[in-house]
Design goal:
Layout (H helix, E strand, L loop, with lengths): L1 H23 L15 E4 L12 H10 L3 E2 L2 E4 L5 E3 L22 E3 L2 E3 L7 H4 L25 H15 L4 E2 L2 E2 L2 H4 L7 H12 L11 E6 L2 E6 L4 E4 L2 H10 L3 E6 L8 H8 L4 E5 L7 H7 L6 H6 L9 H7 L3 E7 L21 H11 L3 E4 L2 H39 L8
Parallel strand pairs: 1-2, 1-15, 2-7, 3-8, 11-12, 12-13, 13-14, 14-15
Antiparallel strand pairs: 3-4, 5-6, 9-10
The chain binds 2-acetamido-2-deoxy-beta-D-glucopyranose (5 copies).
Enzyme class: hydrolase
Organism: Allacma fusca
Pfam families: GDPD (PF03009)
């Protein structure tokens, strides 16, 4: 019951969100994003502040709360089925340790032992239950309830929610470690399987046009426009392959590959991707400060030859200059410490999430991977409203200043007044 009440409240919030964007249509836009539209909210692994990450209810909740895109991570089972899970392994995110029948699948790893998704068939995997990991404020109440979803189940959620909520919800699958998954298979196996799976569900792969997908609701099939798709990956060769075989929009994930954080590096990425995605900190304290803080080293000569690191406040503009959108990760719930600025603020003090998001909205960041979708949506709406007020204030101030100058010119009084 409590959950239902929450969902109803949140549906109301979503309605508010859509009415606010209608209200703003045609007015001066506060957004400095590449196409002048509001920053997109990518729900990081579903809605893990309320429900375990990468679960069907987690994806449903993220959709209801108003995410623009809902993120699944994709791994492959032994029988080559896509499942949604963040890690390649299962020890911390599932109850596999309580399953003696899988003891023989335990593998030695550098940090002890683990079970790999790649060693389980889908049928075997479906006997496990999700356990919330990296807990922090994330609830433990749902441990043991949910199974690891397949990619098909994820698509089912998004299509059903698109139909039921009557709004666009994008899909942004991340291919996890294609080089690992393609071992013992034909080359680009994982990438090909993704293209095939999307095509089977009606997504247009090779032409930039609308595709028709189906939503199963109440046992009936309903046609829906296919949700927008962005495919993300850390491995550039996988993206290059997808680009050669499809017209899908691609997102390059960048962790700490120093070369890609330079002027020439950004240009290189733009040859493959439409979205450039990296740590938010690089756009706040700068690349060198953040890398130093994380004990990462780089080759100074090489970085200089690539034009140097792009300064924090120029980063979004530089990505835009190459026709790409910039998407940053990861924005936590406001009750968790933000890591923004740890390199310059000792001790990583928790900070105001509104202040944090407003900073990146001001920079014109096109998308953010967020946790607590409702909270982020509310901050975004407030930013829009504030900007309108600021716009009015700006005009009023300009008018007052012009009037003062005029009065000064005419009467000789009030000279020296300006604002
Ligand atoms: C769905 O949204 C469209 C426009 O976005 C609107 O024209 C249509 O009436 C809506 N359908 C329902 C059932 O609300
Ligand atoms: C590929 O096969 C080899 C030999 O059977 C095995 O050791 C390795 O773990 C396999 N790789 C993957 C990713 O399954
Ligand atoms: C960097 O290295 C120092 C010294 O080994 C260590 O104390 C610190 O925790 C490291 N910082 C990070 C962010 O890992
Ligand atoms: C650093 O980069 C330069 C230029 O690419 C290269 O010549 C040099 O060997 C690199 N140094 C190291 C230590 O890798
Ligand atoms: C005030 O006078 C200056 C110089 O004479 C002129 O450039 C300016 O346009 C005038 N401003 C107004 C508001 O009339």
């Amino acid at each position: 019951m409590i959950f239902l009440k929450l969902v109803l409240q949140l549906t109301f919030l979503t309605l508010l969100a859509s009415s606010s964007s209608v209200r703003n249509k045609g007015k001066h836009s506060p957004w400095k994003t590449l196409d002048g539209t509001p920053t997109l909210l990518f729900a990081h692994r579903g809605e893990k502040v309320l429900l375990p990450e990468h679960t069907v209810p987690g994806y449903e909740t993220a959709s209801i709360l108003g995410a623009d895109f809902v993120e699944p991570d994709l791994c492959l089972t032994k029988d080559d089925q896509f499942v949604c899970h963040h890690d390649l392994f299962l020890r911390d995110g599932s109850d596999v340790e309580n399953h003696p029948e899988f003891e023989h699948l335990k593998r030695k790893t550098p940090d002890g032992f683990n079970w790999f998704i790649r060693d389980f068939t889908l049928a075997e995997l479906k006997t496990l239950r999700i356990v919330q990991q990296n807990t922090g404020i994330r609830p433990q109440d749902y441990n043991g309830f949910f199974t690891i979803p397949t990619f098909q189940e994820y698509l089912g959620v998004i299509h059903r929610m698109t139909f039921k909520l009557n709004r666009t919800i994008g899909i942004v699958p991340e291919l996890k470690n294609p080089s690992f998954h393609n071992a013992n298979r034909t080359s680009n196996f994982m990438e090909k399987l993704l293209l095939q799976t999307l095509a089977e569900h009606g997504y247009p792969i090779n032409l930039i046009s609308d595709g028709y997908c189906e939503a199963t609701v109440d046992g009936g099939k309903h046609p829906i426009p296919c949700p927008p798709v962005i495919v993300q990956c850390f491995e550039t060769p996988a993206l290059e392959y997808l680009k050669s075989q499809s017209d899908l929009e691609l997102l390059q994930l960048i962790q700490d590959q120093a070369e890609l954080l330079t002027y020439k590096g950004i240009k290189e990425v733009s040859k493959v991707a439409k979205y450039y995605s990296t740590w938010k900190e690089y756009l706040y304290v700068g690349v060198a400060a953040e890398m130093t803080y994380n004990n990462k080293t780089w080759n100074e000569t090489l970085i200089d030859s690539l034009g140097g690191f792009v300064p924090a406040r120029k980063f979004a503009k530089e990505v835009h200059r190459h026709g790409m959108k910039v998407v940053l990760f990861t924005f936590h719930d406001s009750r968790e410490p933000s890591t923004r600025g740890c390199a310059v603020v000792p001790g990583c003090q928790p900070e105001d999430k509104t202040k944090e998001l407003d900073y990146f909205f001001e920079l014109g960041v096109d998308g953010i991977f967020i946790e607590n979708v409702a909270e982020s949506r509310a901050i975004l709406m407030d930013f829009e409203a504030q900007e309108e007020i600021r716009g009015v204030r700006r005009s009023a101030r300009n008018f007052a200043s012009a009037l003062a100058t005029y009065t000064c010119n005419v009467s000789g009084y009030l000279c020296g007044y300006s604002s």
